[in-house]
Amino acid sequence: MPNVTTNTTPNTTPPPLRRKPADWRTVAIGTTTVFLAVFALLAARMQNGLDPAAQTAGSVGYARSKAPSTQYTAPADTSYLPAPAPVTRAS
Amino acid sequence: MNAKPKSNGIARAVRYADMTHCAFDCMGTRISFWIDAAIGARANIAMAAGERLLHDFDRRLSRFRPDSELCALNSDPSVEVAVSPLLARLVSASLDAARQSDGLVDPTLVDAVEDAGYRTSLAGVNPASLAEALASRPAVAPAGPDPAARWREIDVDTSRLVVRRPPGLRIDSGGCGKGLAADMVAQLWRQLLPRDTRFVVDCGGDIRVGDLPQDASPYVIDVENDQLGPGDLTLTTHGGGVATSGVGNRLWRDGDDFAHHLIDPAGGRPAWTGLTTVTAVATTALLAETIAKTALLLGPDGARRVLSASGGAFVDYAGVVEIVAPSVDNINRSAKEAA
C-alpha cells in the first residue's frame, strides 16, 4: 500500500497586504473634487473681499469689504427687512 | 393661444420680516401679492392659487386673445349667448360700473378704443412722454356719456348664465377687469387664510387688501404718478380697495397728437379732462377702479364730487395734488404737495 500523506493543516498565513492599484477614474474624480472645492473657496473670498474673521452673525451680505468691489451685489436676504409698500398706479 | 403659467409662484416668493411677497406678469401688467409672513407656508399655497386664478382670468377674458371666451361672445352671431359663470360675472360687473358712473365707464367702447390705436396689448411697450403730451396742450373738457348708451342694450342673467345683446355689439371689461380680478383673489384668500390675515392683492395698481381690525396698524399704499416723487402721496387704510386711473401708462403718439386708452364716451376719442391721475378708495377694488375712472373722465370739478363719498386724490396737468376728504372713518391719508 502506498504511503500516502495528506497535509490537512490549513494554510493560515494571510497573503501579504498589497495595495490595490487605484483606479484612474477614482483618482480623477477625487482630484477634481478637491480642486473645485479649493477654487470655490478662493473665488468666494475674492468676490466678497471679506475677511472671514470680521464676519459676524447678522452681517450676511453686508459685511464691510476690505476691497470694495462695484461688481458685488449683496445677497437678497430680506428676511429681516420690512416689506416694501404696495403702489397704486394707473395701468 | 392658451398660455400656461410658467410657474406656480412658490419659487419666487420672497420672505420679508413682516410679509411674504410674490410678483409676476399677467393681464398685460405686473401683479404683486403680499401675505402676512407669520402664517408660514400657507402664504405660498395661497399665492399659487391666486396666480392660477389670474392666469385663468386673463386667458378666458382678454380681448387680446382670439380664443378667449370674451372674443367668442363678441363674435357670436346669436342674440342670446350661453356664457361661463366667470364671463357672466365680468359682464355683470361691467354693467354695474356703467350704471354707477351714469354711462361714463362704458363697456361698449371697443371700436373707439381700437380706432384710437389700442388694438393689441401694450404690455412691455414704453408709453409716450406724458410731459410731451401735456406740452402739446390738448383741448381740455369733461367727458360725458354716450347719448346712445348702447350698454343698456346688454343684459346678463347670472342665474341662467346667458348674455343677450345685439350681435356685433362688442363688450369689453370697460377697464374694471383688474379690479374685479383683485377682488376675486381676495375672496379666494379669505377662504384659504386665517381670519384677519394681513394681505395685499395688487393687479397692476388696482389693489385689494384684507380687512383688518381698527386697532391694527393700517396698510400704507404709495400713489405713483410721473409728476410726483416716490412717497409724495401716500394712502393708509384698514381694508377695502384702492385704484388709480390715469393717462400716462397707456399713452402713445397718434400722428402729431397723442392718444390714450381712456375714451370719452360722448365723443369716442381719448379724454383730456385736466387730470393725469385719480386715486380712489372704496370698499372693493372694482368699485375703487370705477370711481377713479369716473372721476378722471369728469375732470377736477366732477372728481371732487365723485371722490367725496369715500375719499381719494387727483393730480392735475400742472402736477398739483388735491386730496378729497373721505366720509368714512377707516381711511386716513397723508400727502405732500408736489414741488
Structural notes for this entry:
The complex is a heterodimer of chains A (91) and B (339). Chain A is mostly helical and 91 residues long. Chain A has one helix and one strand; from the N terminus they run αβ. Chain B is globular. The N and C termini of chain B lie far apart (47 Å). The chains are: A mainly alpha (91), B alpha+beta (339). Chains A and B meet through strand 1 of A and strand 1, strand 3, strand 9 and strand 11 of B.
Brief sketch in words of this structure:
The complex is a heterodimer of chains A (91) and B (339). With 91 residues, chain A is mainly α.
Helix/strand layout:
The complex is a heterodimer of chains A (91) and B (339).
Chain A: H1 24-48, E1 87-88
Chain B: E1 14-15, E2 19-26, E3 29-36, H1 42-61, H2 69-75, E4 80-82, H3 85-100, H4 110-115, H5 130-135, E5 155-157, E6 162-164, H6 177-192, E7 199-203, E8 206-209, E9 219-223, E10 233-237, E11 240-246, E12 251-254, E13 257-260, E14 263-264, E15 269-270, E16 275-282, H7 285-307, E17 312-316, E18 321-324, E19 331-335
Antiparallel strand pairs in B: 1-2, 2-3, 3-7, 4-6, 5-6, 7-8, 8-11, 9-10, 10-19, 11-16, 12-13, 14-15, 16-17, 17-18
Tell me the quaternary state: heterodimer
Briefly note the structural class of the backbone of chain B. alpha+beta
Estimated structural class of chain A: mainly alpha
- What is the number of helices of chain B? 7
Order of helices and strands of chain B: EEEHHEHHHEEHEEEEEEEEEEHEEE
Order of helices and strands of chain A: HE
Summarize the main sheet of chain A.
none
pLDDT < 50 runs, ≥5 residues of chain A: 49-74
Task: Work out the helix count of chain A.
Answer: 1
Proportion in helices of chain B: 25-40%
Strand order of the largest sheet of chain B: 1-2-3-7-8-11-16-17-18
The share of residues in extended strands of chain A comes to under 5%
Tell me the number of strands of chain A: 1
Largest interface in this structure: A-B, 15 and 37 residues
Work out the radius of gyration of chain B. Answer: 19 Å
Shape of chain B: globular
Number of strands of chain B: 19
C-alpha end-to-end distance of chain B:
47 Å
